[in-house]
Structures are given as C-alpha cells and as structure tokens.
Amino acid sequence: MSFFAPLPFRGGAGGGGVQPVPSMAPTPTPPLKGRGFGLCMALALLAACAPMPQPIAPPPTNPPSGMQYLYGSGEAAALSVQAFAMLAAHATVTAKARLAQSVVLASGASLDQPRFVPCGDKPLAAVFDVDETVLLNIGYEYHDARSGKGYDEAAWDAWERTGAGAVSPVPGAVAALAQLRAAGVTVVFNTNRSAANAAATAQAISAAGLGQAVHGQTLFLQGDDAMGSGKDGRRATIASRYCVIALGGDQLGDFSDLFNAGQPVAARRVATTTPAIAALWGRGWFVLPNPVYGSGLKGGFDDVFPMDRRWALPTDGEKN
To answer: What is the C-alpha separation between 251 and 289, in angstroms, rounded?
Structure first.
C-alpha cells in the first residue's frame, strides 16, 4: 500500500498549494565490513581516548586563611601597632644614648657568636623591609587570591610597576616612621623589589604615607649588588654609612642571611631563641606578622610536631 504525505510546495506563476508526494520506505543500511568497519572502530576508539576538557574551577569563596588574618583581622593589626610602638620607643631612647655598636651583624659573625658593626660618629638610621613590613600589597594579594594561581613572577613585576594605587600602610607604620624622623633617625628601606622598578617602589612607599625614599640613599633593592635576594650585602652598605639602631621585617632574612643558610626547620627556630639572638628581639630587631608567604611557611609533620608532643583522640576508653 502506498501513502501520500502533503508537503509544502512553493509554486511559481502557474501553481501553488500542496502537491502529493509519494512516501518512500527507508532503505536499510548494509552492515559494515572489512576496511569500513575497521575505520569506524578506529574513529570510535580515538573519540573515546580523546582528552576531556578540564572543568574551570570556580573562584574561591573566601581568601586563604593567612590573608584573612594579615589583611583582614584586628589581631594582625594589633600585633603590627604593638611592634611599631615598641620599635619607635626603643629607637627614640637609643638615639639619645648614642650606643657604640649598631644592630647589624658584622662580616664573619655567626648566630652563636654575634658581633656587630661599630657606630662611630655615623648618623642614626632604622632599616625596614618594605612588603608586609611597612606596606601591605592589598591589590596584588587580592589578584592572587581570586585567581588561585599562586605567586607569578610576571604578575609580581607588573604589580611593582603599576600597583602604587592599591597599597596600604601596615597599621602603626606611618606614626612610627614619623616619630623616628622627628627624633633625628633616618628611615632606610631595604627590599627585594627589583632595582629596575626603583621609581615605582618609591612611588608606592610615598602613596602609603610612609615618606620619601631615594634609590641608593634611603632605598636599596635587589639588583643593587651581586647577592641576589640576600640582604646582608645591602645591610653592610647601609651600616657603613649609618649607625643602624633598629631593624624591622617580616622575614628572618630581614635581620641576617644566616637564618637562611639551609638549616632544618627546627634548628632555624631554635636559632631565634638562643640567648645571644633572643636578646635582640624587641631591643633592636622587630618582627611583623606574615602568615601569607615567606621562609617561615615550611616544614612537614615531623618538622612542626615533635614526636613527644603528639596526641590522638582516645577511643573505646583507651587513655592517651
């Protein structure tokens, strides 16, 4: 039996409407054999093995906990204000006393047997790291947190060059630096920002309300000598010109490169508490909090948790 299905027909001048078209039964497709079958199987296997596109991770709901603490918490702000108040008070008193030696370790000194650069009649200075010591990189860390990509050297270089409008002073820094200058103490910055971006770094320092910085005089950067990110060479240069009565930083390398000489995590921690070094904290060396990045964020379980101080939740009445 044949059927006619009405299909639309666009007629010319001589016709229009609907014309009957005979329906056709579908022709069965013959099974693939030989090369045709093999080709289809190969294509199917290739399609199955093709890498699936990776789903794009959604942006983080919240910043990392370290950023929440440093850039958002009242606790971090209070610690910073406390550190700068202690530093300014100590330096003001020390400036009147005219001590014989600075707080910069001399060449050849060790952490076990520290020796310090003598002051002579050099003018007084206090030396500070910049990033997360006197200045908070709010804009860059926002970018870092939202992207979730971690530290990127090219992005950081762009930030150094263009980020002056998105920085903030560390709480307490503006008042402390003003107090130091009023007491006749020169404020010097020693940072691992690039010497190629010296003008932009000086602009960022000024934008944060921290005063003026002049490259080679009161601003020293990575690339000013051949020691790379090590700061001892720049510290020695500064100490040859000034009697340094206070150092401020958020990393141990802001006080001496000896802390970054490859010690195990536990040994490095112990080095900060030996009598000779412990006497410097709060009395010439002042640390600012930074749980976001740096040499302090290292160590496995065995480094961080001593074997004799571990605990597990007791089960089934077992005593620990």
So the answer is: 9
pLDDT at 315: 86
Pairing mode, strands 4-8 and 18-22: antiparallel
CA distance 244 to 174: 19
Rounded CA gap, 232 and 249, in Å? Answer: 14
- Residue 145 · residue 258 · CB < 8 Å: no
pLDDT of 195-234, one tens digit each?
999 999 999 999 999 999 999 999 999 999 999 999 999 9
Q: Give Cα 182 to chain centroid, integer Å.
A: 32
State the DSSP H helix or E strand holding residue 285, giving kind and residue range, or none if neither.
strand 285-287
Candidates 205, 187, 189, 215; CA nearest to 95 is 187
Which of 36-50, 102-116, 146-160 has the lowest average pLDDT?
Answer: 36-50
Tell me the one-letter amino acid at 260.
N
- Which domains are assigned to the chain? 65-291 (3.40.50.1000)
Whether 155 shows a pLDDT value over 90: the answer reads yes
Residues 144 and 173 sit within 8 Å (Cβ to Cβ): no
Query: pLDDT above 90 covers what percent of the chain?
Result: 78
Longest dimension (CA), the chain: 119
Is residue 223 left, alpha or beta, with left meaning phi > 0 and alpha meaning psi from -120 to 50? left
